[in-house]
Amino acid sequence: LVKDFHAVLKEFQKAQRTCAERESTFLPQREQGGGGGGGGGSGGRAAYGANMDHERSSYQAAEYMESQALLQEQKRQELMHTEGEMEFNNALIEEREAGILEIQQQIGEVNEIFQDLAVLVNEQGQMIDDIEANIVSTAVRTKDAQKELTKADKSQKAARNKMICLAIVIAVVLIVLILFLLQ
């Protein structure tokens, strides 16, 4: 039982270390990945658009400006969408991090419980060993007592037989003495 408990405790501690390692590798990646990226190549497009503006007619210039405005609006919407996703992802990461911290705390509590249980198992193991030693000692003493009782019974029978023989001898001596005195 103690060996099984120690094996389970070692497996639990191994799982706790693995969890801590995974958490430590996750946090640096999150910090690197959350740094954000730069904008697109809008500067190059604006320069290209400026060069094209000189070459096009006034109608084409207006059309180009309208397309640029649409592109800028589309980029602004994409940026807002990306920012929304980033906020959602950050909230999700914070929630997961809180969950991980709670799990880590619970694992620490379970670890303390297992350590307390290990102490109790060791103490009870010693008590069980003491009880076992007492049982073995009692069994040996019981066998010795049985041998002593057998010896006492034999001694009692021998003493009884000696008393009967002595009584018979005394009775015979008294009868012989009485007969001798009566003659």
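^ that was protein a. below is b, sequence first then the tokens
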Amino acid sequence: ALSGVPTSAQEGEARALVELPVSALWKCLKGVVGDAADAARLAGGPSGAPTALYPMTCQAFAQMAFFDAATRFLSTDYQENAAAAALSLGIFSHSLDAKHLVAAVHVLRYWPPATQELPSGPFGQFVRSMPMLEGPHDIDTDGTRRRQPLERVVQQLCTGRDAIHALLVACEQGQAEPLLAELTRCRLRQALLLHLFRE
């Protein structure tokens, strides 16, 4: 834990992360967020319920559901790096910041791509229990309510989950745009730094 000044061991580990490829960073992150309690400590923020583990997962998946469409739209102006241009937009940059990435990678461990059914564990229970907002002027103050029928919500979450996984795999296999791969590598490294310098 931090006491204001990083230890020499922490500094050494942080420097080592700089050189790691996406494949190694992703493997390390999966290792440190396997337990829900550990993932929740890293993903949690100062805003309470909206920054709890599963609301953060839903935010990441729901926002990234539109990533491929944004990439296609931007390909007219950014033919060589449309995906990186999309990732630079606020919605996608936010959904892949360090804390959202922690939440997404945690759930990806037991809800793999192409699985259409919600998992039976805590994340699936959270999504199934989300109440509907009562009208267009109702406000979701705690990030635990939905505006669409459950089937539509699950479909959107699946699309976003698959987009995040596809992005990570493309970067891991060297098939992503160079700028996108570097942006993703930085985000994975930031997520691991959260673990390294956790309170």
